[in-house]
């Protein structure tokens, strides 16, 4: 699908309302369909996209990555706050489009449900949850809070747990991060991070495990909705 500059206004008005945080919306197709509709490169330009997890740069001592590099499981016992199993995608989110989005399926919330999804930059410390350090944002499953840099989290949305599907995206038209749960928009927040941003996920308690999603259908495999 080829988009034009006029599409930005449409996306800004229909996909995400920047003035409303924690939007109540029926789970299902509308929001995700809009995000997918505008996920094609602007002007037909092509970019390399994330396709798998970066097993070279990650907190390997606390997680195991599946052979296909698409799923993660926590393998430690979380004795310390820094015992986080965190991993980025192999490439940053593409920028030459209006919307970028990815999601995970929580196969097992583990002992504490401390799973997180978000974005980090290339300097991010790979022993911390996304949102616990500068230049990172993360939506956390155990408390439903949004974390964005050092400090405490802020009330943002519902918690998420086993069998939930959670998504994170960037609306370049409105310069916002947005997050979803089970197909419904949880909320959006201004994107004050610059530079390349990597899709990032974290597990932080015993037996936590994430699988990927594909076209909103459960598969045993982090994924990206296909470009429309």
UniProtKB/TrEMBL annotation:
Annotated protein name in UniProt: SPla/RYanodine receptor domain-containing protein
Keywords: Receptor
Classification via Gene3D superfamilies: 2.60.120.920
One Pfam family in the UniProt entry: SPRY
Species, as recorded: Populus alba x Populus x berolinensis
UniProt entry tagged with the keyword Acyltransferase: no
Residue spans of biased composition, Low complexity class: 1-15
SMART domains: SPRY
CDD domains for the chain: SPRY_RanBP_like (cd12885)
Region ranges (Disordered): 1-22
Domain B30.2/SPRY: start-end pairs: 30-219
Key word ATP-binding present: no
